[in-house]
């Protein structure tokens, strides 16, 4: 089974393909580091969390629910910047991703030579995260949850209960 990670904010969530989530979070961290805001305590704490989350599939990523409006706006701006940088590439070689060190020796995954990670689904995932944080993510069909970042694009996963 493909590895997925739950991504949540204010009681709503969706599933994400783990590799796509890891790549997006790495680009988000890079965007923070280039922004001049990396020394802000709330963002520095978030970056530490995102680095670990990028490499660990077993834990869900819950974005901070107590951000001020200004913090949410900055997060959206940074996430949009990460999406734009990702969109400038058609794919990322797996070997490149395998060499990214997130925290100590933690990495996003092991890739076979020649493996390519398409960026379009990661960009779609990034914009879904922005929609989630801005309150604009549409509700999934009843009994299903959205799933983003898969090579085939957005899909749904059947859930056991009602509307999520």
Q: What can be said about the biggest beta sheet?
A: 5 strands, mixed
Provide the succession of SSEs.
Answer: EEHHEHEHEHEE
Quick one: how many beta strands?
A: 7
Average pLDDT level: 88
* Unreliable spans: none
Q: Give the strand order of the largest sheet, numbering strands 1, 2, ... along the chain.
A: 3-1-2-6-7
Q: Between the first and last Cα atoms, what is the distance in angstroms? A: 22 Å
Helix content: 40-55%
* Total of helices: 5
Coarse structural class: alpha/beta
Number of domains: 1
* Percent strand: 15-25%
Give the C-alpha Rg: 15 Å
Shape: globular
Descriptive account of the structure:
This protein is an alpha/beta fold and 164 residues long. It has one domain (4-158). Helix content is 44%, strand content 18%. The chain contains 5 helices and 7 strands; from the N terminus they run ββααβαβαβαββ. It has a 5-stranded mixed beta sheet. It has a two-stranded antiparallel sheet with strand order 4-5. Strand 6 (144-148) and strand 7 (155-158) form a beta hairpin. The chain is globular, with a radius of gyration of 15 Å. The mean pLDDT is 88.
